[in-house]
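Q: I'm writing up a methods section and want to include an example of the input and output format. Could you take the sequence below and give the corresponding predicted structure tokens, formatted cleanly so I can copy it straight into the document?
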Amino acid sequence: MNLPNLTSADFLPLLPAIILVLGACALLISEVFLSVGSSRGYQAVLATLTSVIAGAVSLRLLFEPAREVFLGFGALDPFSSFLTFIVCVALALATLTSANFLRRRGAERGEFYALMLFAGAGMSLLGVSNELITVFINIEVLSISTYALTCFLRRGTRPSEAGFKYFILGAFSSAVLLYGSALLYGAAGTTLLSNMAEPLRAAMGTHAPLIYAGAVLVAAGFAFKVAAVPFHMWTPDVYEGAPTPVTALMSAGVKAAAFVALVRVFVTVGSGISAKLPFALFSTLALLTMIGGNLLALPQRNVKRMLAYSSIAHAGYLLLGVAALFTVHPGQEFKLLGPTALVGASVQAVARTEALRGILFYLLAYTVTTMGAFGIVSLVERREDEEKGTAWDRERLSGLAQRRPGWAFAMAAFMLSLAGIPPTVGFMGKLMLFRAAVDSGLVGLTIVAVLSSAAGAYYYLRVVIYMYMRPVPEGAHPLERAWMTELVLVISTVAVVLLGIIPGPVGEWIVQAGTLLGR
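A: Here is the clean output for your methods example:
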């Protein structure tokens, strides 16, 4: 029996995931030795420290030469490494936010943080995956952990309903994704992404309907994961019922991992068949998602549901960047080199590289912004009102500038960033993404994106008005201080402002290094 010729270099892209898994195992083992009344303050610190170490390793991997590992089943490249960094940032901020959230509910347990780290490991491995079955398995790894996290607080009907809906939604999307992968395998004879282009191109003459059906089903499976319209139906219910730190992690980490996997899969599939199909799919999804997400967010009084619909709208902006990758004219082509730096003989190669860079920068911008926004939500909500659904009403933010000026300033910065108003990182992210779309010829779709973004500013600025222009409600409960969550607010606010003012040396340089190293 011939064993695969694996070297230590094959395990390099797995290092961040291995660190996260080891941290999760340490938390689970330590829980065994604790009694009911034991202090568990170390757990959030250990989970955060594990995430920081894994993030530091992923930054180091940015400067490794891009190559395939594990016989082509994985890819070590700056694209996946930067995703892992984004996931680790989301994990670190989510674990810090969770400490006070769980302590107020008497639910602080090591398994909660362990599940978060396991989910983060799945997200990291999903970005590394370079084969369809591996993509499916890692989606399940992150999904199973997030199912359990969603209904971790078992008291009441909302967490149970959210967990059940998320499980049904995830199971259906995984089935659709797996069926589409099976159809592509039937046409290409392989599930390795790096080997699929030529067989798909050769099979187009005889099995075109099979290939098109497989591509559409795989796209639908990913559309469920990123909550694109019309595959978004239960996403706001899940976001509302899940613990707020878990909602933040799902909104940022799961979305980032799914987008990176989507790009990796469809750049290969698109080069094997025709760029016209992915372009039509993703431009249509982008149009529906941008408009639908913003229109549904407009009437929301519930801040948590508003942020949920907002995340759908932001998925639409990211899909605009994905569509820009496939604006290939007749006689032009593009391919993957190393294996994720976009190059090609066409004059639009630079525009596609800019689109890829814009997607990554936007994911980073959205992560630091949304983690901070959900941190504020976790501070103002009360457990007693969660079952009644009033814990996240806008009225809870009324007069916040008088009660907690620092919190109000941070939330204002997050809302301005989500709205894309300078000088925040959200503005720079949209600028990079929209510019790449215009350079790729998507002028009409970009105009729709700008208009829908302007409409979104209405419900974001309404939150700011409540904080600064409304009086404190009568009988308002005192707001407890929580130093770990406030640390999240400081980190997120500094990142939102700093990356917005000087994106070149601080943020764009990292993304530029990541996307161009493979050339």
